Amino acid sequence: TPHSGTLSSKNYPGTYPNHTTCRWRLRAPPGTSLLLTFGDVDLEPSERCAHSSLLLLLADPQAGTAYAGPYCRNAGPATPLLVTNSSTVTVLFNSTSHRSGRGLLLSYATSQHPGRGVQRPPGLCLALTPLTVCFSVYCPAGCKDIDGDIWGNPSQGYRDTSVLCKAAIHAGVIADELGGQVTLSREKGITLYESAFANGLHSKRWVKRAGAPGLPTCHLPLPACGDVLEVAAFNASSCWHEVDALGQARAWVAERAALGTTGHSWAAEPGSDTAWLELDLGTRRNVTGIITKGSSERYDYYVTSYWVSSSRDGKNWRPYRGSGGQEDKVFEGNIDSQGEVSNAFIPPIVARYIR
User: Fold this and answer.
1) Domains and CATH numbers, the chain
2) Which of 8, 130, 167, 278 would you call most buried, defined as having the most Cβ atoms within 10 angstroms of its Cβ?
3) Is the pLDDT reported for residue 53 higher than 70?
4) Rounded mean pLDDT of 250-260?
């Protein structure tokens, strides 16, 4: 296995399946030992964890095989960090019939990760921090719902006390359903962090108080590029032809959907149940994300959630499901008609047409 990583039960952070047995074997280089961090052990409680359980087998060359567990919701680990004397650990997860439980989320690292020491700051799933200005965090899946606030936005960076795994999801560097390794750089802090809503996460606005020392800013490498793609043509399932009180007509046509358009936006015909907006990029492009905004002119109109489909020929459409998803991904949209909301495509979409 690599020097660090994460593992989780199937469907995590959703309910784990019934009648499942999973086995992972972690093997570190000779002469090192494994450190395990329990991010989440939410198995339905039962006497002696008979219905669902987590059991660790620690291979000690001198003492033989030792056991840790079984663990479940009513008998969890004593501490979130387990320092073993073993270079080989077998993780056993077992479930019978049950009704609830997120399952298992566990991170691991070796005792001699190159240039790094292992720590677990509040809210961080697992951090691997070298003694340089750049450092790396390994974020397991499901970090989106951990406690802690994000201060800042992708373009300006994040305050040093940000929950960095959540900040990486907010910036679109990693997907919450997969997690992953994130490398950061630390620079001199800035005075103002504007808040933003991105990838289903809110960040907060923070202003440095007068006389307060400049806090370092954590910069995340943004995915791919941030260039705005030009749209060759807009199309829509319908558009709203408004007639105001004076009898004047105004069309909320698809072309008005371009971000930054002065005046009103696109709107589907009232009562449309399956409205869609289509963007023709002119040629096949690599699409890494989308930004949406409501129409604040006269009306408080905005879209709260949406699906995305793509096509290379304009005829055959493929729904976007994200990283290994089995269901069409629902993106969180706007919460008002004023603010912009960004969502990243991880992995990116390669297509000419987007709906």
Assistant:
1) 4-110 (2.60.120.290), 133-219 (2.170.130.20), 233-354 (2.60.120.260)
2) 167
3) yes
4) 92
